[in-house]
Automatic annotation (TrEMBL):
Matches recorded under Gene3D superfamilies: 3.40.630.30
Top-level division of the source organism's lineage: Bacteria
Protein name: GNAT family N-acetyltransferase
Record InterPro entries: Acyl_CoA_acyltransferase, GNAT_dom
Molecular-function GO term, any one: acyltransferase activity, transferring groups other than amino-acyl groups
Domain (N-acetyltransferase): residue spans on this chain: 6-174
Organism encoding this protein: Mariniflexile litorale
Length: 174
């Protein structure tokens, strides 16, 4: 549940150093815990998300609790399922100082509200196919597993999302 002093707004280029730090910390922490991590970070892709108002942050006062990106189309991963009827969540990174504070639940509440306001039927995302723990976590929010998919090396994909085995997941908006 979003706290009174928290809000979800777009990131700005002023946030870019903090966004990079969040990604670097997430990659380091996940690697230390034995999970797969992105091999590299597509900084140009993050800048593009920020410049096109596709990246959001959960903030409390001046503290960034979490960042995430959205797309309204994702044909490179979702192919024929991409029918202009979904919001796609990507690159969700929680500030390590705010883990355990239900940041993903806040993202989900925001995404459900957004989907309803825009008459979208689904929230979709992809995650590491071989990380059963994260798949189970997303399923606890109502996501259902669709299929495993290997991403291509298409230059339109962010560098960190190329040639990955991912699990495609979606939730139907009630």
């Amino acid at each position: 549940m979003q706290q009174d002093n928290e809000k979800i707004i777009n990131t700005t280029m002023d946030d870019f150093p903090a966004v990079l730090w969040l990604f670097e910390e997430a990659m380091k922490l996940q690697g230390q815990n034995g999970y797969k991590v992105w091999k590299t970070l597509d900084k140009a892709g993050l800048v593009n998300d920020i410049q096109h108002n596709l990246q959001y942050k959960i903030v409390s006062r001046n503290d960034i609790l979490c960042v995430f990106s959205v797309q309204l189309n994702d044909p490179l991963i979702w192919h024929n399922r991409d029918q202009n009827d979904a919001i796609y969540l990507h690159r969700i990174v929680v500030n390590p100082n705010h883990k355990g504070q239900k940041q993903f639940e806040k993202v989900m509440n925001w995404a459900i509200k957004y989907a309803r306001q825009h008459n979208l039927k689904f929230i979709r995302m992809d995650t590491w196919a071989d990380n059963g723990k994260i798949i189970d976590y997303y399923q606890s929010f109502g996501f259902r597993f669709i299929e495993n998919y290997r991403t291509t090396n298409a230059p339109e994909l962010p560098i960190q999302n190329r040639n990955l085995n991912v699990a495609l997941m979606e939730i139907t908006i009630p």
